[in-house]
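Figure 3 (text version): structure tokens given as input.
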């Protein structure tokens, strides 16, 4: 039978853990000036996901805590990153089309017959399977007092492990959008890049995304050749990939705007499911492979940026 004193002692021990008893972790890293440095530091399980800051000799040091039961490994991080990127892109599509409708109406009025810009956006919405009520709602919204037209902006960011990012923004308040992006980048430990220092690493293109389980490369190459597509990009492959990994990886059929509809029609004829882009994607010229810590940090930075209303997409060259 357990004694009362034993129960009290166990309770006291739990209390100490909940308040953060320090443990030595051999797997912590300090990040100084964008470089991961192996170090020994203590952490509490209560704050294992927090990014702790120290001030040594007036030099800010970012400590990245790793604790195997909590920290995501490469495989789980890959899955979350792939799923998160696709889910976020789909969630942002309606918002982006709505903004484009507002801008078109503000420029030349609500009649698509006389407003060629609005007619083009409506056709694009149909192509991307955006519901008609989204278009109608934003045509009405454009006439509301105080509603301004939206302006497209791109912000360039340095992530972790040498990764570069481009943040696509469509905003009616530029000062608000840049302030929000800067705040998230700073809080996550990234760095804003000068205009042009990252953009040259990417190219703008129309893209159709096809899950790897939906078709094989040869089948997609045949479709690409028949429809005049430029390229078929294979999903990244890792040694520890499982069926779950494969189910969340995508081929990218790269094409011009002129051939985009033809590719969608051909995929429908073949019975292949696909996901459209949001009008275009920024594709990396080359991809960078990073370690687990940088992968998790880049995923968190990307996730928080996508939570901003003005941000429509985030592109990065991480493999």
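Below: residues designed for each position.
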């Amino acid at each position: 039978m357990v004694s009362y004193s034993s129960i009290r002692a166990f309770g006291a021990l739990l209390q100490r853990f909940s308040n953060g008893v320090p443990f030595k972790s051999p797997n912590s890293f300090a990040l100084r000036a964008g470089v991961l440095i192996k170090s020994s530091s203590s952490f509490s399980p209560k704050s294992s996901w927090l990014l702790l800051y120290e001030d040594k000799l007036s030099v800010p040091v970012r400590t990245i805590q790793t604790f195997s039961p909590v920290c995501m490994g490469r495989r789980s991080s890959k899955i979350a990153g792939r799923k998160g990127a696709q889910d976020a892109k789909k969630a942002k599509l309606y918002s982006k089309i709505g903004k484009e409708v507002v801008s078109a109406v503000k420029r030349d009025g609500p009649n698509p017959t006389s407003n060629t810009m609005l007619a083009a956006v409506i056709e694009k919405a149909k192509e991307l399977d955006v519901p008609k009520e989204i278009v109608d709602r934003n045509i009405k919204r454009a006439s509301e007092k105080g509603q301004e037209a939206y302006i497209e902006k791109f912000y360039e960011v340095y992530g972790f492990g040498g990764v570069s990012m481009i943040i696509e923004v469509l905003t009616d308040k530029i000062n608000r959008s840049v302030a929000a992006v800067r705040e998230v980048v700073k809080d996550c430990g990234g760095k804003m890049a000068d205009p042009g220092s990252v953009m040259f690493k990417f190219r703008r293109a129309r893209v159709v995304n096809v899950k790897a389980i939906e078709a094989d490369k040869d089948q997609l190459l045949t479709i690409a050749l028949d429809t005049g597509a430029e390229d078929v990009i294979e999903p990244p492959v890792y040694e520890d990939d499982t069926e779950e990994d494969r189910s969340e990886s995508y081929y990218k059929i790269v094409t011009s705007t002129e051939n985009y509809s033809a590719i969608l029609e051909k995929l429908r004829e073949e019975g292949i499911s696909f996901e459209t882009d949001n009008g275009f994607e920024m594709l990396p010229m080359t991809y960078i492979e990073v370690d687990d810590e940088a992968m998790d940090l880049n995923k968190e930075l990307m996730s928080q940026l996508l939570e901003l209303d003005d941000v429509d997409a985030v592109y990065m060259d991480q493999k």
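The first strand starts at residue 23 and ends at 32.
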